[in-house]
Amino acid sequence: MPDEFFSPIFDNKTPSTYRYFDGEQWRESESRKTIPIISPVDNTIVAYTQVVTEKEIDAVLNHAVVSQSGWENTALNKRVSIMHLVADWIRHFQDYLTVLMTREIGKTHDEAKGEIVRTADLIDYYAQEVQSIRGETLDSDNFPGFEKGKIAMVEHVAHGVVLAIAPFNYPVNLSASKIAPALLMGNSVVLKPPTQGALSALHLVRIFEKAGVPKGVLSAVTGVGNDIGNYIVSHPNVSMVAFTGSSDTGLAIAGKAAMKPLLFECGGNNPAIVLPDADMHTTAREIVKGAFQYSGQRCTGIKYVLTMPNIRDQLLPLIKDAMTEMVKAGDPRSLETKLVGPVISEDAAIHIEEVVNEAILQGATLIVGGKRTKALMEPTILTGVKPTMRVIAKETFGPVMSFVDVASVDEAIQIINASEYGLQASVFTKDEGSGIVVAQQLNVGTVQINGSPQRGPDHFPFLGVKHSGVGVQGVRYSLEAMSRVKSVIINKPQ
Ligand code: G3H
What we know:
- The protein has about 500 residues and is of the alpha/beta class.
- It contains 16 helices and 23 strands.
- The chain is globular.
- Bound molecules: glyceraldehyde-3-phosphate (G3H).
């Protein structure tokens, strides 16, 4: 059944070659070039993806523009029904998609399944929430100096064509979190999936197609990010860019996108402050979860803990205990493996190992881990890390957690606010009032009191400041961001 459902998207060779979706048909590119997708699990080729040409991108975007107004004028209840059908199909294929995702990006079986089920729930929620998005009317005489006589009719209308650029770490969820709200608000969408993760994302696109998204309204183009990315981002037919990925790539895209509206989720590099009165057991468990979930490859991962040396010494044994219970690094296909599988590629693992070794050379102490076998990096803890060391000065996208010694909470706040990142931060304390006082001084999008950073629940606002993002996501916020306000003003004859 899955093979039949998904058959148009790849050929029947082993390994197969995937096609791109021009909005109407699954095609091979006339470039005749493909990219091998190498599994970080066993280093085998999972499949190949197409490298599309600029001419093909032009055709896809023209089709997206032409199809958009018909889609925006399609009854909302029809768009909502299509989304519910997408969610149903995703649930139906969850086991198949889990196996594929685990092999493609090395996410552990349970985490991959969690991503897929969460995606179905998210799409249902968008479809429900969109029905409460309404316009309004405003009267002129509310403003000083104006009489009655003007009425503004304010509506939410589509941007046009939304370019959705998704990352490797949530190839299904972070594609759907852009595609679904954009479509529900009447946009057409061109998806640029991650290079690694493209296979999972292309299956998602096929589900949208089968659920009834009309021709041209959703398409997916594959290729090397830098090559097609630059071309597509600055393309005049793209009206808005929704992107998740690293801060460096985000900055480059923002430069190219010029005055297009942006919705960006970029690097996190999230800190946690542990106050002396924190419940150390809960704190240790939250830190372990925050640091090692999906091998530390989450923009919401905890990357460093700021606390006084005596608190650090209390925490470390509890963290080690929690790691024994909660983490088991290994083959992500095995149900025994918990939280830590291989990172996305051997090159990524080599980089992580390098920055860990560099920190040690600069004076940090290795407490656990630090070794690498191919793409599998051991869960690693360092102490004595300084904010200038590369391991935390830049986001290290892997299972590495650093302790930074501070003499006071004020020093911790200063360090966090001096960072180029500002996604989330955690504050651990039994006194929620003190937690709020600290939270109010942190220049980040969200502060979690007594919990590790995370995006969910997905209807909460999710945003980064500084190099961590632009705009606000979260179900209602994303729907609003995927539309713009348009007003029509009726001037009554005097
Ligand atoms: O990596 C970025 C994701 O948006 C993080 O989502 O907090 O659910 O893992 P998560």
